[in-house]
Amino acid sequence: MSRHQPPVILSIAGSDSGAGAGIQADLKTISATGGYACTVLTAVTAQNTCGVLDVFPISSGHVAKQLDAVFTDFSVIAVKTGMLFNTDIIKIVAAKLCEYNPQWLVVDTVLASTSGKTLLQKKAINAMLDVLFPLADVVTPNLIEANILIGEEKNDYLDENQPELINKLQGLKTKAVLLKGGHSSDQENCTDVLILPDKIQTYSAPRVVTSNTHGTGCTLSAALASYLGQGFALEVAVEKSKRYLTEALRFSTSWRLGEGHGPVNHFFDF
């Protein structure tokens, strides 16, 4: 029996009662990709494949206690954040990350659900930009979130290769941006763009035609944290995460779980 010890990856995010996104998707993804998942819950949602019905945020004090509990007992090497919901939670998460200083931080910029439910209060966006982004090794917005982050709430930039959008994202106070292309108009391929201060790298895969797309952003960012925690360089970790998500989508195409956008198949390789 192998005695290999998996790297400890921490997800700080909200729950999903349908288990396709949020903490539940992160647990599945990290486990499937070779990490050991710990969790800190920021909010409880009433949610299924059709949308988010309600959100109950956890107090920032209890979020702090959860973070202390994990970091004082586990050697956390990589962290991903998902739904943080409000300014108080963002500030306490940032403070604890500075205190415990994990090697890697992936920030998934969860702003709203596909159905339009607010998952980050609008007044908390500046806190994310000013307090959390500078700590991150990579942030992972989709095209709609990227527009909001650069102040273009009319979604003027829906092409992941648009130079002006890339230039503005390079100006954010963070080390790298992985711009996800799932919302682009390209029906043939899905292209993600890794934006670094000195270079741009693209990752393209044929677009998988399926309604089972719930939790894809959570899954990609959790896989990225897992692979970074296993020692892969950022560019390689992005490539492996992209491949993992594409296969999880492909192996879910025959599923009919729920009445809306179903989950991906996190354990396709088992």
From TrEMBL:
It is an enzyme of class 2 (transferase). GO terms for molecular function: hydroxymethylpyrimidine kinase activity; phosphomethylpyrimidine kinase activity. Keywords: Kinase, Transferase. SUPFAM superfamilies: Ribokinase-like (SSF53613). InterPro entries: HMP/HMP-P_kinase_dom, PM/HMP-P_kinase-1, Ribokinase-like. Residues 16-265 form the Pyridoxamine kinase/Phosphomethylpyrimidine kinase domain. Its EC number is 2.7.1.49. Pfam families: Phos_pyr_kin. Pathway: Cofactor biosynthesis; thiamine diphosphate biosynthesis. NCBIfam families: HMP-P_kinase. This is hydroxymethylpyrimidine kinase. The gene is thiD.
